[in-house]
Amino acid sequence: MVRGPQLIPTPLGNPIVPMLRSAIALLTLLAVVVPRANGQALEVDHMFIMVPARAPVMEALAAAGFRVRPDSGVHEGIGTASFGIAFANAYLELVWIVDSADFAGSPFGLAQRLAATPRGSPFGIGLRQASGHLDALPFETSSYQAEWMLPGAASEIAAWTGDVREPAVLVVAPPMTWLATLEEFPAILERLPHPNGIRELTRVLVAGPGLPVESAVSRALVRKGLVEFVRGPDHHLELFFDHGAGRNWDFRPTLPLVIWYR
Label partner for 147 (CA 20 to 30 A): which of 16, 133, 209, 232? Predict the structure, then answer.
């Protein structure tokens, strides 16, 4: 990576969040971590939501007190672009389509899910391994390597049954995780908490019709305490921050997202 002002790469594609490098900051990771099993622990690295367009979503999040960068990055070969919101131990990525042809061939199965709206899930969940190594995983995967990725830094896309109700799931290669980004760009942590007081992700709940899906991937996410699935009339993501649930923002219908915080 080049030094100085630049864009930070994310597992889905090209850079999305410009930040400046600064002095090393202390990173404390608390929740959304599961105990090691056979020397392995998985953590939530990021979540992404497919949205129709950038502007209304960005405005809604900024109005709720989140620091939202106006910059967007295009994911070459996938047909999408995105912007992100940073937290101390994860990030949220908002993704929209910019090239329908490329999007149709996305390896994440996103086109099939969106084509099945309202049954299809608009969400994706990125995981990382706490060990810093890509060890054996509790579900089958296929490797995904793009030109923009570091050599040998392929992400692992979880095997999909074809059930459109299930979110896309991938495991990010260690050099591409959010923790690796924070080590490279510690100034990100200096901008936390957000003006609304939110700093750290502590719980992830995915609601939608027909959930939970009976698949090896969904079972592993629940068994390891990473994600909760609940049946609901509509697909929406509920994110809990800083071990709080006293207040919330419900961004529906602009965005299928509910934020819980102290």
Answer: 133
> Which of 44-48, 97-101, 154-158 is least confident?
154-158
pTM of the model: 0.83
Query: What length is written for the chain?
Result: 262
- Which secondary-structure segment (H or E) carries 33? none
The domains located in the chain, with CATH, are 37-261 (3.10.180.10)
Q: What tokens appear for 167 in the block?
A: 């979110």
pLDDT digits (tens, 9 = 90+) for 32-61: 443 333 335 899 999 999 999 999 999 999
| Residues β-bridged to residue 10 | 13
Contact 200, 241 (CB under 8 A): yes
